[in-house]
Design goal:
Helix content is about 50%, strand content about 5%. It has 15 helices and 3 strands. Strands 1-2-3 form a 3-stranded antiparallel sheet, with no helix packed on it. Helix 2 packs across helix 3. The longest helix has 24 residues.
Length: about 375
Amino acid sequence: MSDFRPGLEGVVAFETEIAEPDREGGSLRYRGVDIEDLVGHVTFGRVWGLLVDNAFTPGLAPAEPYPVPVHSGDIRVDVQSSVAMLAPAWGMRPLLDISDQQARDDLARASVMALSFVAQAARGPGLPAIPQEQVDESRNIVERFMIRWRGEPDPRHVKAVDAYWTSAAEHGMNASTFTARVIASTGADVAAALSGAVGAMSGPLHGGAPLRVLNMIEEVERTGDATRYVKDALDHHERLMGFGHRVYRAEDPRARVLRRTAKELSAPRYEVAVALEEAALAELHARRPDRILATNVEYWAAVVLDFAEVPSHMFTAMFTCARTAGWSAHILEQKRTGRLIRPSARYVGPKPRPVRDVDGAAAVLDEI
């Protein structure tokens, strides 16, 4: 058995044609196309097509009229539960029993339905649903989402969300994507694989950082002194959220395109975000000159989502919307491999022993 690596870090488990994070160069390419050439130029629905089909057309079709069936008060729970329910509701068959084309069509149908569920859950049960004819007036998938959520969205907010979704659509093998591939490898239906991936997003270590970044920016706004805030935080051994990444040894390319987007949109918090970023990078370099700690995607994602007036409790749900593209591409790629994912585990537990040596054995051995 090969050497054990906690968390499978550095273990190559798949070959993929979907995304290429360039560790040294600080770039991210979707099927060879740099995201800097996509953000602001190609809408998210077309980027979904690039990732899944290796073509912009037909892309992601509009969601069907389907009210979200679960209203728990927690958007993530509503979406995860509702997506799982699509399989019996729509008669989706296991991946093992359908063609690649059918799997692709099921993924498109379920992915865009997940976006609709997020919008409906965010709108809440207390407000009337937006009339379908108003939703149908939209020009693309993101605008459709925003209309379903808010009714008449600011076009600049649509642009901000589109930029965020495109930049966060795919990033190789992470916790939620690995979860989706593991479920797909069992031959389960696509709704099960997508629902499982949504569940993996519920942990704060995967997708929860933008909220904490926003808290930092708000504190700098209050005090007016970014340098003092950074020094105090580091002196108290607090972590500065939005800096450093396990993949990149240079600036996260997603941070770069989102910073550009925030500037183009004249986001009100752009200037204070730049001041905090500059202060943080300078102090981190001064204190840890041996480490490369550049800005990551969570930092500028917080600014862009805040500009689009996305409430902080929705940040992870918006990440989920974006990542439906990458998950779909990986689920389909995994189906084509035809292999069940089954890693090994090295046993390090107790040596062979009689049952009477187990704690509490004397009290239970005669219960049968």
